[in-house]
Amino acid sequence: MMGAGKTTLGRELAGRLGYTFVDLDEYIEQREGRSIQELFEAAGQEGFRRAERAALEAVVQDFEQAIIATGGGTPCFFDNIDFINQHGASIFLDVPAEELVQRLLLTDLSQRPLLAQKSEADLKDFIVKTLATRLAFYKQARYTVSGKRYNIEQLESLVKP
Ligand SMILES: Nc1ncnc2c1ncn2[C@@H]1O[C@H](COP(=O)(O)OP(=O)(O)O)[C@@H](O)[C@H]1O
Ligand SMILES: O=C(O)C1=C[C@@H](OP(=O)(O)O)[C@@H](O)[C@H](O)C1
Ligand SMILES: [Mg+2]
What we know:
Oligomer: single chain
Strand order of the largest sheet: 1-2
Shape: globular
Bound molecules: adenosine-5'-diphosphate, shikimate-3-phosphate, magnesium ion
CATH architecture: 3-Layer(aba) Sandwich
Number of domains: 1
Strand content: 5-15%
Number of helices: 7
Structural class: mainly alpha
Order of helices and strands: HEHHEHEHHEH
CATH superfamily: P-loop containing nucleotide triphosphate hydrolases
């Protein structure tokens, strides 16, 4: 989910393993030549999800040993979660909703179009409801790591060959 730490942790994990790190949102931005916000503005969420799926297919062609930080919605559209599981070892970072909200409030919400311009109360409501609808997808990850704190060695042991 947004704020779980996919980008932050993914980068750290890739560094430890000596793997390439790819943040799917950044990869989409490079492919599309515009920011995620611009893509949402021009093509709506539907257009973004199509670009996201295309990027997912391209990224598995482009990289062999890589840690990919997806976006929070990636596994929840099309058959993306099946595609992800067919091509790699997926990890669900299962962070409580209240913690996600606290973290996200400290960031620039305009960078995440689904959260832009939300009040704190609306943000809380959105995170709780969205997490509930997405959980069925997230639970299909091969591994689940739960809690506010994480242990990078534990994560490393999950994916290390
Ligand atoms: N384990 C953590 N504990 C506390 N804050 C964290 C942790 N992981 C990430 N953050 C912070 O939470 C925010 C969202 O992290 P980010 O990696 O962008 O999440 P995601 O890519 O899953 O949306 C950032 O401000 C980041 O510094
Ligand atoms: O949860 C989502 O639907 C989204 C999460 C974002 O990525 P992060 O999870 O890295 O914020 C980004 O892909 C886009 O704003 C949509
Ligand atoms: Mg991210």
